[in-house]
Every structure is written in C-alpha cells, then in structure tokens.
Design goal:
Blueprint (H helix, E strand, L loop, with lengths): L7 E2 L8 E14 L2 E7 L1 H6 L5 E5 L10 E4 L2 E4 L5 E9 L3 H6 L7 E8 L10 E7 L6 H8 L18 E8 L8 H6 L3 E6 L6 E2 L2 H9 L7 E5 L2 H13 L4 E4 L15 E5 L5 E5 L6 E3 L7
Parallel strand pairs: 9-10, 9-13, 10-11, 11-12, 13-14
Antiparallel strand pairs: 1-2, 2-3, 2-8, 3-7, 4-5, 4-8, 6-7, 14-17, 15-16
Helix pairs in contact: 5-6
This protein binds flavin-adenine dinucleotide and FE2/S2 (inorganic) cluster (FES).
The site of flavin-adenine dinucleotide has 22 residues, from β5, β7 and α2.
Length: 295
C-alpha cells in the first residue's frame, strides 16, 4: 500500500513525535455513536505506547481547523507481521468526529504523535482498569502489553511490563454503548460491567463494581482509570481510602497537543502543598490521582 507518509520531526516541541499522513484502511460503527478507525501510518504505530495519544486533522477542510486528540486503541500488523498502523475508537460528539464518521477507505488525514506520557509500565500482579464510556479505549493496549500479547514502541519498556491478572470495571450509559468487550474477554481480562439503566451487567456506577473488587480476594494492587471527570474523582477517592496507587488519564480539550498553546492546563498539587498548573498534553495525560485538584 502507498503510505503517502513523509514524516516531519516535531523536535524542539516533542522530540519523539512526528507529523505524518494516515490513510483510512477501515472505519466502522461498533456501538451507538461509536466508531473504530484503522489508519495506515507505520511511523506513528512503531513508536506509540499504551495511554499515549495522537492528533488527527482533516487536510481538506478549514473548519475544524485544529486537530483533535485520540488515544491509541491498538496497533495492527500487515500480512508480513510488520506493525503498519493504529486503530482508535471515537464517539461522535461534534464537528470533527461527525466528519470522521464519513471518511471512506482510502481517505488521507494528517496525524501528529505519539504525544503525552502514557500509562506507566505496570509492575504489579493484579492490575485494575476502570473505564467510563469511551474512556475504555486506552486499555486494550495496556492489557495487551501487561499480559504479554503485544509489544509497543521502541523504548526499554519492552519486556518489562507484566501482570498476572487484569480486571476491567467498565461503566457505560447502556448496553448499546459498550465496545470491544469481546476483545478484552478474548485476552483473558476479568470484566465487570455496569450500566446506568441496568441493560447490561450491574445497574449503577463503575465505582460500585470497583468497590466490590477491592473487597474481594482479587483486590487490585494498582488502578488505571479513564473516563468522565466526576467518575475519575470518585475512583481516585476510593483508591485513596483503600491505599491503592491510582493513575488517571485526562481528556482535557486540547488545541496543539505538543506544549505550545497552554489550552490544556490542569491544576496539580505540588510536594510543598501549593498548587500549580501542568499541560495535560505534555506532562499528562496520565497523572498520579493524588496530584490532581478536581475543584
Ligand atoms: C488525550 C486525549 C485522548 C482522547 N481520546 C479519545 C478517544 O480515544 N476517543 C474519543 O472519542 N475521544 C477521545 N478524546 C476526546 C476527543 O478529543 C473529543 O471528543 C474530540 O476532540 C471532539 O471533537 P469534535 O470536533 O467532534 O467535537 P467539538 O465540536 O470540538 O465539541 C463537541 C462538544 O464536545 C465538547 N468536548 C470536546 N472535546 C471535549 C473533551 N475532551 N472533554 C469534554 N468535552 C469535550 C465540546 O465542549 C462540545 O460541547 C480524547 C481527548 C484527549 C485529550
Ligand atoms: S494542547 Fe497546546 S499546550 Fe497542551
């Protein structure tokens, strides 16, 4: 396939990131308002690690002019077993995502990444992933890595991430919005679903299933969480009460994605008790839960 890729260095801003072209290989609706897009973009796919993200822009339009951030769902390989591109999941909420849902196979887009810090290399036996809605997307790659099903990036994290057991507490509005459940199940994740309306799993909040897991024999030693902010605050409080280290991945709206516009700042606690601001795109999107100020 013709890559159409001519990567440009973003060195000076984010040294490991490139700007390149992505070509749509697949773009399909997988749940209510929820799509998975597969892009051919080997340069990005070879470097990106779980929890990192990239910016996507449509070169054919000026509205929206800015790119939009999306988390890595997974990388995919070509027939020769070479990493060839990325998959990402998106919910149609506004201008760009509505446009993206119309992109046919073969269309080009502009990408820049990998961006952000991603989730830390897991060194515990029992890891729990807590997802709200589309916040589930970073966790397929996290799971693949810690269970040894897939290696990501060129860094020294290869081979060092591990877990014996991965649980996923996954909350959604209703069954219609759930995505990738079979893929998580197929790689051995223990899934605890909750829905607002009780149409699948337990009726209630994701914190209910997390609380039950924490009081069971399978109590996690680390929690990684991504979803709406009120949910992440509740998960953060539960983790603190239970003395379980917790990392949160923020979905703060972003303009540039690589540190120059300061549109994405979030307030954090400093070691001396004061507070300061950090750019979610560069110093995040993943932060230790106790560092974040939610109000
Ligand atoms: C690091 C990171 C990773 C992300 N990963 C994913 C992902 O994997 N899948 C996915 O579907 N989305 C993800 N998002 C959110 C995604 O970037 C937004 O949904 C997208 O930018 C919306 O673009 P739009 O042009 O369609 O919407 P717009 O027209 O820009 O906005 C539509 C509406 O959504 C609101 N909105 C836009 N962005 C956000 C946001 N980040 N948080 C809350 N409200 C918002 C706007 O205020 C507006 O009301 C991620 C965001 C970040 C920062
Ligand atoms: S999005 Fe521009 S600095 Fe973070």
């Amino acid at each position: 396939m013709d890559a159409g890729c001519s990567p440009h260095d973003l060195a000076g801003f984010v040294p490991s990131a490139v700007e390149c072209h992505g070509q749509v290989v697949e773009n399909r609706c997988v749940a209510k308002d929820t799509w998975i897009m597969r892009l051919f973009c080997p340069e990005l796919a070879r470097e990106i690690t779980p929890g990192q993200f990239f910016m996507v822009r449509d070169p054919r339009v000026t509205d929206p002019m800015l790119g939009r951030p999306f988390a890595l769902l997974d990388v995919w390989k070509d027939a020769n077993g070479n990493v060839a591109g990325v998959d990402f999941g998106y919910v149609v909420v506004g201008k760009m995502t509505s446009l993206m849902a119309t992109w046919p196979v073969g269309d080009d887009c502009v990408l820049w990444g990998p961006l952000g810090n991603g989730f830390p290399v897991s060194d515990v036996d029992r890891l729990c992933l807590v997802a709200g809605g589309i916040g589930v997307t970073p966790f397929l790659a996290v799971t693949n890595e810690v269970l040894g099903a897939q290696k990501y990036g060129n860094s020294n994290r290869i081979g060092s991430s591990r877990a014996k057991s991965v649980s996923l507490c996954y909350g959604a509005r209703s069954e219609d919005y759930l995505m990738c459940v079979d893929r998580f199940r197929a790689i051995g994740v223990k899934i605890h679903i909750s829905t607002d309306d009780g149409s699948c799993g337990q009726k209630g909040f994701v914190t209910d299933t997390l609380r039950e897991l924490i009081s069971s024999d399978d109590c996690p030693q680390s929690i990684y969480c991504c979803g709406p902010e009120p949910m992440m605050q509740a998960v953060s409080e539960l983790a603190a009460e239970s003395h379980i280290p917790c990392w949160l991945s923020l979905e703060t709206p972003m303009a540039c994605g690589f540190g120059i516009c300061f549109s994405c700042v979030t307030r954090v606690r400093m070691d001396d008790g004061s507070t300061d601001y950090r750019r979610t795109c560069v110093e995040g999107p993943v932060f230790r839960a106790e560092k974040l100020c939610f109000s």
